[in-house]
Amino acid sequence: MFRKILIANRGEIACRIIKTARRLGVATVAVHSDVDAHALHVTLADQAVAIGGAAPKDSYLKGGAIIAAALETGAEAIHPGYGFLSENPDFVDAVQRAGLVFIGPSAKAIRAMGLKDAAKALMKQAGVPVVPGYHGANQDGAFLAEQAERIGYPVLIKAVAGGGGKGMRRVENAADFAEALRSARAEAANAFGNDAVLIEKYVSAPRHVEVQVFGDGRDAVHLFERDCSLQRRHQKVIEEAPAPGMTDEMRHAMGEAAVRAAKAIGYSGAGTIEFIVDGSEGLRPDRFWFMEMNTRLQVEHPVTEAVTGLDLVEWQLRVASGEPLPLRQEEIRLTGHAFEVRLYAEDVAAGFLPATGRLAHLAFPDHCRADTGVQSGDEISPWYDPMIAKIITHGPTRAIALSQLGRALDETQVAGTVTNLAFLSALARHRGFTRGEVDTGLIARDLASLMETPQNDRLESAMAAAAALHVAALPADPLTGFSLWSPLTRRITLETGADSIDVDLTMEGPQAARLRVVDQEFQAVCNGQNWTLARDVALKVVEADGLHVFAPGKTARFRRHDPLNRDASAGLGSDVTLAPMPGLVRAFFVIAGQEVQAGQPLCVLEAMKMEHMLKASRAGRVAEVFVREGAQIAAGDPLVQLAALEAGHG
Length: 650
Ligand code: MV4
Hints:
650 residues; Rossmann fold; D-amino Acid Aminotransferase, Chain A, domain 1; Dna Ligase, domain 1; 39 strands; elongated
């Protein structure tokens, strides 16, 4: 085993790799960009090396700087994670030229799978089922049209260099072929600088089922399948293992095909064989076809770890350090069912726009696996993928693992950025998905209902009440004499975006209170230490850049009402300044008839044991003063009336 490895990546995957390395007694070196100087992966690693600027091309894609960092720190091997340099064969060559080990496949294997047409031809030769089609070099338009005719419509034109659906056109009949070919080529040339295409039979009701493989350069095994059909615009949203509806017969056929694929290229390390499955008539052993091979560890590897009980990063390190495969095929078992969701900082309502922000608070329940590269206080920056975490659950059955997932999402707390949490939650409870009806069109079909945010007035009021209870900071000890100085009912005003909400808090004893929010009432009790709302669901309040209230599946943010802010804005049009809170008038600085400037102090109000300065909301003449020093006033009581300044006074 290696003594020290360098991780050429960041975020959750870098943290994930460090965790296993540590468990195996392997020292770790992190590399980082300037903006990641204090990132979690840097904190977790034994050593860290700064390699450049925030843009990936200035840091995480700088192969030379990364290799230099490995040599400098005495690392023996480099783990590329996923993305960045993980499938770059030139980087693999450079790592090996430097006398280091690349934890992954050979450059040759990566190259063999890099171009979709060559990979398909190679797989066909190896006896792996490939979608009927033309995967050759002849790019003549008339010839390709002939091939489409031979394959039979509908066909799919795909960019040879493609992926992610770019340069892909479905063609229904011969009359549309020429135009579809032209536009697919133009898109491919633009996106990949390569306008070569291949033609395939169009698979209807496609499902994305991939098989995890592992090789040691001589032998290969598979670790069963994952179903990644739940996608949005070719981005995976939920992954699971095993695939719903999978039979032993089909699993065996797919596993064998995947192992043949890996052996055909002498594969070493973790890889994934992606198949497209025609699910229109259930899963059948003659209805799956090779699509492509990903020659790296994938984002969704944890679902395979959950159902096999194996650590794939451990396998990667062991195989790369020269050990044979840790287990034989028949020793690898599949137990239960697992799900993974990708939690993103993204604005679902705005069309799933990536979002940024500082995470004021981040917490996961402890009954799920959460792989993350950030913690409370960290920034989701625009420089990198906005994934906050992967949440993984594992249960004895699909139904149980899915309820665990719903619950884990409900109890995940993110403050400081918008997220797709509610969207994921809706998906986890989607009727069709719950029944195991997974297909690549599900999200697009039901997008509107998945994006709905169900209104729940009672819960929303309870969240305001919880925030108010936090603001009230009631003493836990009844002997502090709280009831002596507290008014019986006090009003706590919270701001929510542009609105404000009033919560009236009434003490009903030293350890009981009632809170009224609009037309809803809540009881609060003190257990001798903490005040909580007496409710069936737990509400957690975290104060960090506002008051964040977390309810199962719902988050709200309030701000403490700031009387100074409100007087400056809300008071603009009104002539009478009102007391923003109940309290004692400590001092009064103006008299009737006096001219005042905007922001000039009017009086000092003592409330909740604090002094608050109230200021004039605008310039004017004090027309009338309604209160005197020493007066006890209620929230909303008038304090002064301002009149307009006479013309000529500016
Ligand atoms: C297909 C297909 C139907 N027939 N190939 C989309 C991205 C690329 N990796 C493969 N893709 C597809 N290839 C044939 N011959 C349908 C898709 C497809 C798809 C595949 C997997 C997951 C989601 C998808 C969404 C739309 C289309």
